Amino acid sequence: MRSRRRRQNWPRRRWPPDALEPRLHEAVEATRDQLHEKQGSFVWAFYGDVETRVWHLRAAAERFLADYATHPGRYVAGELPAVPLAANSVDLALSANLLFLYDDRLDRSFHVAALRDLARVAREEVRVFPLASLDATRSEYVDPVVERLRADGLDVAFREVPYEFQLGVTEMLVVSDCS
Ligand SMILES: C[S@@+](CC[C@H](N)C(=O)[O-])C[C@H]1O[C@@H](n2cnc3c(N)ncnc32)[C@H](O)[C@@H]1O
User: Fold this and answer.
1) Residue 124: CB within 6 Å of ligand 1?
2) Assigned domain for 83 exists
3) Which of 63, 90, 107, 169 has the highest count of CB atoms within 10 angstroms of its CB?
4) What pLDDT score does 11 carry?
5) What pLDDT shows up at residue 173?
6) Which residues of the chain have pLDDT under 70?
7) Is the same domain home to 104 and 166?
8) Which among 44, 74, 104 is the end of a domain?
9) Residue 60 CA: which ligand 1 atom is closest?
10) Is the CB of 79 under 6 A from ligand 1?
11) Does the Cβ of 121 fall within 6 Å of ligand 1?
């Protein structure tokens, strides 16, 4: 059953920078292996090749670690589906490469709850990309989740983006609470 699917063991609590560094390094290396293995499934127009994408991942990890070490107060540890922030406390909520992509381990009710809560904290809108599963097909949860959110009174739209990494996947979900 979907609800019993295993959730991946990602770091979620507040980690000291020294403890996060090896975990980030490990995550980048694991991504590197997967990209080499499946490079034919991706579009390389933006990155050029696997090693350039890995370079970007490493650079992002290093920027994050440096900022996290010097400005820990900028970060709030938490995990979906509940966001530990007050209503309307951020302008924009972004979710990349988690919702819909991992629909083999995060079930439909998780997606609905997570998006409701992201819409609660975002003054302007929530943006989610990609809307495809790991096999690059549109997640089967997109339509039922959108239907549920609209029934709750949320405003939901699809927007094309000028970025394609999974082949043919260029759609972003935009959710806002207009009440
Ligand atoms: C594939 S990575 C994507 C990272 C980044 N957003 C990006 O686009 O490169 C998936 C991320 O989701 C995080 N994650 C896993 N479960 C989560 C949850 N319940 N709430 C929030 N983040 C979660 C993981 O820690 C991991 O960093």
Assistant:
1) no
2) no
3) 169
4) 44
5) 98
6) 1-14
7) yes
8) 74
9) 9
10) yes
11) no
